[in-house]
Amino acid sequence: MPTQVIQIGAIGLIFVLMYLLMIRPQRKREKQVNEMRSALKAGDSITTIGGIKGKIVSVKDDSLVIQVGADKVKMEIMRWAISKIDESGSASKSSSAAKKPAAKAEEKEEEPKPARKPRKLTAKTDAEPEGEATPDTETDE
User: Fold this and answer.
1) How would you write the pLDDT of the chain (141 residues) with one tens digit per residue?
2) For residues 19 and 13, what is the distance between their CA atoms, to the nearest angstrom?
3) Domain boundaries, the chain
4) How much is the pTM?
5) Beta-carbon neighbour count of residue 63 at 10 Å?
6) Does domain 41-101 correspond to CATH entry 3.10.20?
7) Measured distance CA(120)–CA(118) in Å, rounded
C-alpha cells in the first residue's frame, strides 16, 4: 500500500514539473504574442511569419493591409501571420531615438584598453632560483 502511494505521488510530481517547465511558459509566450498582435496599428513596420517586411496601412478585425517594397504594393494578410513588430516602426522610432543618444554617450565614456604586449616565454634553467621570477620567465601559479 505505501509503495503505491509513493508511485502515485511521483507521477503527480512529474505532471506538476511538466506544467511548470513546459506548459506555463508556452502559455505566457502565447499571451505576449496575442497582446502584440492586438496592439497593431497603422504605421507600424512588421515582419510576417513568411519573412515579408512591410508597413501597416490599415487594420481590420482579423486582417491587415500592408505596404511592401519600393513599388508600395499593398497586400492583405491575416493578423495571426504577424511574427514581430520591427524597430523601424513609427511607434518605436520615438522610443529608440531616446535610447540611442544615451547608448552613444556610454560608449564615449569608455576608454579603449591599451593592447597587451606579448610576453616572451622561456624555459627555466637550473641556475635560476626557484622563488624568484624574472620578467622573461613564466611561473606556474
Assistant:
1) 788 999 999 999 999 999 999 999 999 999 999 999 999 999 999 999 999 999 999 999 899 999 998 999 999 999 999 999 998 644 444 444 444 454 454 555 556 666 777 777 777 666 555 555 555 555 555
2) 10
3) 1-38, 41-101
4) 0.51
5) 14
6) no
7) 7
How far apart CA 139 and CA 141 sit, in angstroms, is: 6
- Specify the residue for cell string 519573412: 51
Element (H, E) at 59: strand 53-59
| Size of the chain, expressed as the number of residues it contains | 141
Q: In terms of Cα–Cα distance, which of 58, 92, 62 is closest to 78?
A: 62
* CB-CB contact of 103 with 112 (8 Å): no
Rounded Cα–Cα distance for residues 10 and 16 (Å): 10
